[in-house]
Design goal:
The chain has helices spanning 16-26, 32-50, 90-96, 143-154, 169-178, 206-211, and strands at residues 10-12, 56-62, 67-73, 77-83, 101-102, 104-109, 116-122, 131-135, 138-139, 159-168, 183-190, 192-193, 199-200. It is an alpha/beta fold. The structure holds 1-O-pyrophosphono-5-O-phosphono-alpha-D-ribofuranose (PRP).
Amino acid sequence: MSSENAPSNLHVVDGPLSRHKLAVLRDEGTPTQEFRQAMRELTLIMVAEATRNMPTRTARIQTPLTGTEVEEISGPVCLVPVLRAGLGMLDGALALLPTATVGFMGLFRDEETAQPVEYYVNLPSNLEEYLVLVLDPMLATGGSLSATLNKLKDEGAAWISCLHAVAATPGVERVTSEHPDVNFYAAAVDPELNDSAFIVPGLGDAGDRLYGTL
Ligand code: PRP
């Protein structure tokens, strides 16, 4: 996907540090422990980027020298990892947003059809009050993310951004057009999917690599 025809709600986080972390993640020789660590570190970078457009409010505080106005993030934050692989980004996101609430979307892709199957959902009841960050290392066909976003919106979520280590062009095209009100952050956009709907070149199955279930 060239930058000229990239959707305006897609943001590629591709500075040297995130490229370096992604190189570690892509390498099939990276062992589980280093893969987890690189995913956590990439998430730190991506959360810093994906919070740049969060709404803020002004507060009046006292520094040791004088009273002054400061800015704070205006709402509570809800992190929503998409199980399982999204859990690999949760620790890094909580490091920067330690007071965040955490909701869970349990989905897996049917290996035959590549369609998402929902098996566990646990979200805060007052989701409309939250700024929601969805965490999932992989955006392939976009089926899992589309199901997640529809569920979050049904539950009232109004401000949503999504963080991915790797996205594929077909999935990006789908979710950015279906959800123009949502912002999508990826460290890379890979061009294609193989016959099994895996991202190519990608980084393999992120859940299996995070949890050693290869
Ligand atoms: C992977 C990935 C996404 C989804 C992406 O999960 O973590 O949730 O597939 O594919 P899609 O865009 O085509 O829907 P997977 O089904 O492998 O489950 P896991 O995280 O439990 O391993």
